[in-house]
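Revision sheet: structure tokens.
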Amino acid sequence: MPSLAFRNPDGGKVLLVFNSGDSLRRVVLEDGGRRFQFDLPPISTRTVTCK
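Predicted:
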């Protein structure tokens, strides 16, 4: 699944995820002991930010 991540000047993190497929995809993110998951619908994008 295509994605792009970067760090903002304030130290926050940004992740852009794109589901180019024709089915729902489960996305699981782990960062420093934190875990976050969500379902990404077909042909959609999601922006996730964290500090």
